[in-house]
Protein backbone atom coordinates (compact mmCIF):
# COMPACT_ATOMS: atom_id res chain seq x y z
CA UNK A 1 0.00 0.00 0.00
CA UNK A 2 1.39 3.36 -0.99
CA UNK A 3 0.15 6.74 -2.03
CA UNK A 4 0.41 8.48 -5.39
CA UNK A 5 0.00 12.21 -5.83
CA UNK A 6 -2.76 12.98 -8.34
CA UNK A 7 -1.98 16.34 -9.97
CA UNK A 8 -5.68 16.91 -10.65
CA UNK A 9 -7.06 15.96 -7.24
CA UNK A 10 -4.14 17.78 -5.64
CA UNK A 11 -3.53 15.20 -2.98
CA UNK A 12 -1.98 11.83 -2.32
CA UNK A 13 -4.35 8.96 -2.95
CA UNK A 14 -4.22 5.24 -2.31
CA UNK A 15 -2.51 3.29 -5.09
CA UNK A 16 -5.60 1.08 -5.46
CA UNK A 17 -7.40 4.00 -7.13
CA UNK A 18 -4.89 4.13 -10.00
CA UNK A 19 -4.01 2.12 -13.08
CA UNK A 20 -0.82 2.31 -15.14
CA UNK A 21 -1.38 2.97 -18.84
CA UNK A 22 2.00 2.53 -20.46
CA UNK A 23 4.74 4.78 -21.69
CA UNK A 24 4.06 8.52 -21.85
CA UNK A 25 4.96 11.16 -24.44
CA UNK A 26 4.42 8.98 -27.46
CA UNK A 27 3.39 11.37 -30.21
CA UNK A 28 1.04 10.01 -32.85
CA UNK A 29 2.59 10.52 -36.32
CA UNK A 30 1.11 13.68 -37.78
CA UNK A 31 0.43 12.05 -41.11
CA UNK A 32 -0.16 8.31 -40.65
CA UNK A 33 -0.80 7.84 -44.38
CA UNK A 34 2.76 8.72 -45.22
CA UNK A 35 4.31 6.49 -42.53
CA UNK A 36 6.31 3.47 -43.52
CA UNK A 37 5.19 0.18 -41.96
CA UNK A 38 8.23 0.36 -39.74
CA UNK A 39 7.46 3.87 -38.49
CA UNK A 40 3.85 2.97 -37.81
CA UNK A 41 4.86 -0.29 -36.14
CA UNK A 42 7.30 1.57 -33.93
CA UNK A 43 4.63 4.05 -32.92
CA UNK A 44 2.06 1.35 -32.24
CA UNK A 45 4.01 -1.47 -30.65
CA UNK A 46 7.55 -0.62 -29.65
CA UNK A 47 8.32 0.83 -26.25
CA UNK A 48 11.59 1.81 -24.64
CA UNK A 49 11.35 -0.39 -21.54
CA UNK A 50 14.30 1.29 -19.83
CA UNK A 51 16.02 0.31 -16.63
CA UNK A 52 15.90 3.45 -14.52
CA UNK A 53 14.06 6.67 -15.24
CA UNK A 54 10.83 6.10 -17.13
CA UNK A 55 7.95 8.44 -18.00
CA UNK A 56 4.61 6.74 -18.01
CA UNK A 57 0.90 7.49 -18.13
CA UNK A 58 -1.36 6.57 -15.28
CA UNK A 59 -5.06 7.09 -14.79
CA UNK A 60 -6.80 7.99 -11.54
CA UNK A 61 -9.39 5.36 -12.37
CA UNK A 62 -11.43 5.44 -9.16
CA UNK A 63 -11.21 9.15 -8.50
CA UNK A 64 -11.17 12.04 -10.93
CA UNK A 65 -10.65 9.58 -13.84
CA UNK A 66 -8.01 11.82 -15.40
CA UNK A 67 -4.87 10.61 -17.11
CA UNK A 68 -1.58 12.09 -15.93
CA UNK A 69 2.15 11.33 -16.13
CA UNK A 70 4.55 9.78 -13.67
CA UNK A 71 8.34 9.79 -13.75
CA UNK A 72 9.29 6.51 -12.14
CA UNK A 73 12.48 4.59 -11.60
CA UNK A 74 11.83 1.10 -12.95
CA UNK A 75 14.70 -0.36 -10.96
CA UNK A 76 13.72 0.98 -7.54
CA UNK A 77 10.00 1.60 -8.25
CA UNK A 78 10.41 5.06 -6.74
CA UNK A 79 7.96 7.60 -8.11
CA UNK A 80 9.97 10.76 -8.63
CA UNK A 81 7.26 13.15 -9.77
CA UNK A 82 3.75 13.29 -11.20
CA UNK A 83 2.60 15.92 -13.69
CA UNK A 84 -0.41 16.74 -15.78
CA UNK A 85 -1.04 15.78 -19.38
CA UNK A 86 0.55 18.26 -21.74
CA UNK A 87 3.31 19.09 -19.27
CA UNK A 88 6.92 18.00 -19.50
CA UNK A 89 8.85 16.04 -16.90
CA UNK A 90 11.30 17.97 -14.75
CA UNK A 91 13.31 14.85 -14.04
CA UNK A 92 14.85 13.12 -17.03
CA UNK A 93 17.61 10.64 -17.62
CA UNK A 94 20.44 12.70 -19.10
CA UNK A 95 22.27 9.63 -20.29
CA UNK A 96 19.62 9.01 -22.92
CA UNK A 97 18.38 11.06 -25.85
CA UNK A 98 15.98 13.85 -24.96
CA UNK A 99 12.27 13.35 -25.47
CA UNK A 100 10.93 14.32 -28.85
CA UNK A 101 7.72 15.94 -27.77
CA UNK A 102 7.66 19.60 -26.78
CA UNK A 103 4.44 20.75 -28.49
CA UNK A 104 3.44 23.49 -26.11
CA UNK A 105 5.75 25.43 -23.82
CA UNK A 106 6.04 23.67 -20.50
CA UNK A 107 4.03 25.18 -17.72
CA UNK A 108 5.89 25.48 -14.49
CA UNK A 109 5.28 22.49 -12.33
CA UNK A 110 4.04 23.42 -8.86
CA UNK A 111 6.60 22.44 -6.31
CA UNK A 112 4.20 20.20 -4.44
CA UNK A 113 3.82 18.03 -7.53
CA UNK A 114 7.43 17.06 -7.40
CA UNK A 115 7.00 14.86 -4.43
CA UNK A 116 5.43 11.95 -6.23
CA UNK A 117 5.17 9.41 -3.52
CA UNK A 118 4.76 9.35 0.20
CA UNK A 119 5.30 6.20 2.19
CA UNK B 1 -43.70 15.07 -21.79
CA UNK B 2 -40.85 15.84 -24.12
CA UNK B 3 -39.72 19.39 -23.88
CA UNK B 4 -36.82 20.80 -25.77
CA UNK B 5 -34.48 23.59 -24.87
CA UNK B 6 -33.22 24.00 -28.37
CA UNK B 7 -33.52 22.12 -31.61
CA UNK B 8 -30.32 20.16 -31.20
CA UNK B 9 -30.84 18.51 -27.86
CA UNK B 10 -33.95 16.63 -26.87
CA UNK B 11 -34.50 16.44 -23.15
CA UNK B 12 -37.24 14.52 -21.44
CA UNK B 13 -38.63 14.18 -17.96
CA UNK B 14 -37.79 10.78 -16.52
CA UNK B 15 -40.59 11.17 -13.98
CA UNK B 16 -43.88 10.59 -15.72
CA UNK B 17 -47.46 11.02 -14.63
CA UNK B 18 -48.11 7.42 -15.62
CA UNK B 19 -48.97 5.22 -12.70
CA UNK B 20 -45.82 3.14 -12.72
CA UNK B 21 -44.49 2.15 -9.32
CA UNK B 22 -40.92 3.22 -8.72
CA UNK B 23 -38.63 1.33 -6.40
CA UNK B 24 -35.46 2.36 -4.67
CA UNK B 25 -32.29 0.55 -5.76
CA UNK B 26 -32.46 -1.11 -2.34
CA UNK B 27 -36.07 -2.31 -2.61
CA UNK B 28 -35.08 -5.88 -3.35
CA UNK B 29 -32.38 -5.82 -0.69
CA UNK B 30 -34.80 -4.66 2.00
CA UNK B 31 -37.03 -7.61 1.19
CA UNK B 32 -34.25 -10.14 0.88
CA UNK B 33 -31.74 -9.00 3.50
CA UNK B 34 -34.04 -7.14 5.87
CA UNK B 35 -33.56 -3.83 7.60
CA UNK B 36 -32.94 -4.05 11.35
CA UNK B 37 -34.58 -1.08 13.07
CA UNK B 38 -32.19 1.15 15.01
CA UNK B 39 -32.44 0.95 18.80
CA UNK B 40 -30.84 2.81 21.70
CA UNK B 41 -27.66 0.75 21.34
CA UNK B 42 -27.18 1.54 17.68
CA UNK B 43 -23.90 3.39 17.23
CA UNK B 44 -24.43 3.54 13.49
CA UNK B 45 -27.61 4.30 11.63
CA UNK B 46 -28.10 3.87 7.91
CA UNK B 47 -30.75 5.73 6.00
CA UNK B 48 -31.31 5.71 2.27
CA UNK B 49 -32.52 8.81 0.45
CA UNK B 50 -33.69 7.44 -2.87
CA UNK B 51 -35.27 9.23 -5.87
CA UNK B 52 -33.25 12.44 -5.55
CA UNK B 53 -32.38 14.40 -8.68
CA UNK B 54 -28.78 13.74 -9.72
CA UNK B 55 -27.24 15.74 -12.55
CA UNK B 56 -23.70 15.41 -13.82
CA UNK B 57 -22.39 18.72 -15.11
CA UNK B 58 -19.41 18.72 -17.42
CA UNK B 59 -17.66 21.65 -18.98
CA UNK B 60 -15.55 24.64 -18.10
CA UNK B 61 -15.70 25.81 -14.49
CA UNK B 62 -16.33 29.45 -15.39
CA UNK B 63 -19.38 28.97 -17.60
CA UNK B 64 -20.87 26.32 -15.31
CA UNK B 65 -20.33 28.54 -12.30
CA UNK B 66 -22.11 31.45 -13.99
CA UNK B 67 -25.04 29.26 -15.01
CA UNK B 68 -25.38 27.72 -11.57
CA UNK B 69 -25.28 31.12 -9.91
CA UNK B 70 -28.00 32.50 -12.15
CA UNK B 71 -30.25 29.44 -11.98
CA UNK B 72 -29.76 28.08 -8.46
CA UNK B 73 -27.94 30.92 -6.72
CA UNK B 74 -25.19 28.44 -5.87
CA UNK B 75 -21.55 28.70 -6.78
CA UNK B 76 -19.55 25.89 -8.28
CA UNK B 77 -16.90 24.50 -5.92
CA UNK B 78 -13.61 25.17 -7.67
CA UNK B 79 -11.39 23.41 -5.14
CA UNK B 80 -10.82 19.72 -5.72
CA UNK B 81 -12.74 17.45 -3.32
CA UNK B 82 -15.06 20.22 -2.22
CA UNK B 83 -18.76 20.01 -1.61
CA UNK B 84 -21.15 22.94 -1.27
CA UNK B 85 -24.73 23.06 -0.04
CA UNK B 86 -27.36 25.74 -0.53
CA UNK B 87 -28.87 27.49 2.48
CA UNK B 88 -31.62 24.89 2.88
CA UNK B 89 -29.09 22.05 2.81
CA UNK B 90 -31.26 20.25 0.28
CA UNK B 91 -29.20 20.99 -2.80
CA UNK B 92 -25.55 20.19 -3.17
CA UNK B 93 -22.88 20.48 -5.79
CA UNK B 94 -19.66 18.53 -5.58
CA UNK B 95 -16.34 18.65 -7.42
CA UNK B 96 -15.77 15.29 -9.11
CA UNK B 97 -13.02 16.10 -11.61
CA UNK B 98 -11.50 19.29 -13.07
CA UNK B 99 -14.34 19.40 -15.59
CA UNK B 100 -17.08 17.50 -13.80
CA UNK B 101 -19.47 18.24 -10.94
CA UNK B 102 -22.31 16.33 -9.35
CA UNK B 103 -25.45 18.29 -8.57
CA UNK B 104 -27.99 16.66 -6.25
CA UNK B 105 -31.39 18.28 -5.76
CA UNK B 106 -34.73 17.21 -4.27
CA UNK B 107 -36.42 14.61 -6.46
CA UNK B 108 -38.61 16.12 -9.17
CA UNK B 109 -36.63 19.36 -9.51
CA UNK B 110 -34.00 17.99 -11.83
CA UNK B 111 -35.82 18.21 -15.15
CA UNK B 112 -36.75 21.87 -14.89
CA UNK B 113 -33.31 22.61 -13.49
CA UNK B 114 -31.61 20.83 -16.36
CA UNK B 115 -33.60 22.84 -18.88
CA UNK B 116 -32.90 26.12 -17.15
CA UNK B 117 -29.19 25.31 -16.95
CA UNK B 118 -29.14 24.45 -20.65
CA UNK B 119 -30.82 27.74 -21.40
CA UNK B 120 -28.34 29.66 -19.25
CA UNK B 121 -25.39 27.84 -20.81
CA UNK B 122 -26.51 28.57 -24.36
CA UNK B 123 -23.78 27.80 -26.84
CA UNK B 124 -21.11 27.01 -24.27
CA UNK B 125 -19.30 23.69 -24.53
CA UNK B 126 -20.92 21.56 -21.84
CA UNK B 127 -22.83 18.38 -21.07
CA UNK B 128 -25.56 17.77 -18.53
CA UNK B 129 -26.56 14.21 -17.80
CA UNK B 130 -29.39 13.05 -15.60
CA UNK B 131 -27.82 10.20 -13.62
CA UNK B 132 -30.57 9.98 -11.01
CA UNK B 133 -31.71 6.58 -12.22
CA UNK B 134 -28.21 5.18 -11.83
CA UNK B 135 -27.33 6.01 -8.27
CA UNK B 136 -28.75 6.46 -4.81
CA UNK B 137 -27.72 8.24 -1.63
CA UNK B 138 -27.10 6.38 1.62
CA UNK B 139 -26.69 8.39 4.80
CA UNK B 140 -24.58 7.12 7.66
CA UNK B 141 -24.85 8.61 11.13
CA UNK B 142 -23.95 7.70 14.67
CA UNK B 143 -20.87 7.77 16.86
CA UNK B 144 -19.35 4.72 15.15
CA UNK B 145 -20.08 5.90 11.60
CA UNK B 146 -16.51 6.93 10.86
CA UNK B 147 -15.16 3.77 12.47
CA UNK B 148 -17.43 1.76 10.21
CA UNK B 149 -16.09 3.69 7.23
CA UNK B 150 -12.52 2.96 8.30
CA UNK B 151 -13.29 -0.70 7.79
CA UNK B 152 -14.88 -0.08 4.42
CA UNK B 153 -13.10 2.62 2.42
CA UNK B 154 -9.42 3.03 1.58
CA UNK B 155 -9.64 6.80 2.04
CA UNK B 156 -8.51 8.34 5.32
CA UNK B 157 -11.66 9.58 7.08
CA UNK B 158 -9.89 11.14 10.06
CA UNK B 159 -11.48 14.59 10.67
CA UNK B 160 -8.13 16.28 10.06
CA UNK B 161 -7.98 14.71 6.62
CA UNK B 162 -11.69 14.64 5.91
CA UNK B 163 -13.29 17.83 7.21
CA UNK B 164 -16.93 18.78 6.74
CA UNK B 165 -17.47 19.98 3.18
CA UNK B 166 -15.22 17.41 1.56
CA UNK B 167 -16.24 14.71 -0.89
CA UNK B 168 -14.18 12.13 -2.77
CA UNK B 169 -14.68 9.32 -5.22
CA UNK B 170 -12.93 6.30 -3.81
CA UNK B 171 -12.97 2.57 -3.26
CA UNK B 172 -15.54 1.11 -0.86
CA UNK B 173 -14.85 -2.59 -0.27
CA UNK B 174 -14.70 -3.79 -3.89
CA UNK B 175 -16.98 -1.09 -5.27
CA UNK B 176 -16.50 2.58 -6.04
CA UNK B 177 -18.51 5.19 -4.18
CA UNK B 178 -18.64 8.91 -3.74
CA UNK B 179 -18.05 9.59 -0.06
CA UNK B 180 -19.11 12.98 1.29
CA UNK B 181 -19.22 14.68 4.63
CA UNK B 182 -22.04 17.23 4.79
CA UNK B 183 -21.84 17.75 8.57
CA UNK B 184 -19.91 16.74 11.66
CA UNK B 185 -22.27 13.87 12.35
CA UNK B 186 -23.41 12.72 8.95
CA UNK B 187 -21.68 10.94 6.08
CA UNK B 188 -23.19 10.42 2.66
CA UNK B 189 -22.42 7.63 0.24
CA UNK B 190 -23.46 8.10 -3.36
CA UNK B 191 -23.70 4.54 -4.58
CA UNK B 192 -24.23 3.14 -8.03
CA UNK B 193 -27.59 1.44 -8.38
CA UNK B 194 -26.05 -1.89 -9.33
CA UNK B 195 -23.75 -1.79 -6.30
CA UNK B 196 -26.38 -0.61 -3.83
CA UNK B 197 -27.23 -4.13 -2.67
CA UNK B 198 -23.57 -4.99 -2.18
CA UNK B 199 -22.76 -1.79 -0.29
CA UNK B 200 -25.85 -2.07 1.88
CA UNK B 201 -25.11 -5.66 2.87
CA UNK B 202 -21.46 -4.82 3.47
CA UNK B 203 -22.52 -2.00 5.81
CA UNK B 204 -24.93 -4.26 7.69
CA UNK B 205 -22.20 -6.85 8.11
CA UNK B 206 -19.42 -4.44 9.01
CA UNK B 207 -21.79 -2.44 11.22
CA UNK B 208 -23.08 -5.46 13.17
CA UNK B 209 -20.58 -4.85 15.97
CA UNK B 210 -21.93 -1.30 16.34
CA UNK B 211 -25.54 -2.48 16.41
CA UNK B 212 -26.23 -0.84 13.07
CA UNK B 213 -29.85 -0.03 12.35
CA UNK B 214 -31.67 1.01 9.23
CA UNK B 215 -34.00 3.97 9.41
CA UNK B 216 -36.85 3.72 6.92
ZN1 LIG C 1 -7.33 12.45 -9.34
Largest interface: A-B, 13 and 13 residues
**Low-confidence spans of chain A:** 102-116
CATH homologous superfamily annotation of chain B: Probable tRNA modification gtpase trme, domain 1
| The CATH fourth-level homologous superfamily of chain A | Folate-binding superfamily
Query: What does the main sheet of chain B amount to?
Result: 6 strands, mixed
Distance between the termini of chain A: 8 Å
Structure overview:
The complex is a heterodimer of chains A (119) and B (216). Chain A is built from two helices and seven strands, in the order βββαβββαβ. With 119 residues, chain A is mainly β. Chain A has a single domain (3-113), classed as Folate-binding superfamily (Folate-binding fold, 2-Layer Sandwich), CATH 3.30.2270. The longest helix of chain A has 9 residues, at 37-45. In chain B, the strands form three sheets. Chain B has a six-stranded mixed β-sheet, with helices on one face. In chain B, strands 5-6-7-4-8 form a five-stranded antiparallel β-sheet, covered by helices on one side. A two-stranded antiparallel sheet of chain B has the order 1-2. Chain B has one domain (24-208): 2-Layer Sandwich (Gyrase A, domain 2). In chain B, helix 2 (61-72) crosses helix 3 (110-121). Chain B has helices at residues 27-33, 61-72, 110-121, 145-150, 193-206, and strands spanning 2-4, 10-12, 45-49, 53-59, 83-85, 92-97, 100-105, 126-130, 135-141, 166-172, 175-181, 186-192, 213-215. By secondary structure, chain B is α+β, with helices and mostly antiparallel strands. Chain B is globular. The two termini of chain B are 32 Å apart. Bound molecules: zinc ion (ZN). Chain A: This is Sarcosine oxidase subunit delta. Chain A: Residues 87-119 are annotated as: Disordered. Chain A: GO terms for molecular function: sarcosine oxidase activity. Chain A: InterPro entries: SoxD (IPR006279), SoxD_sf (IPR038561). Chain A: It comes from Halomonas halmophila.
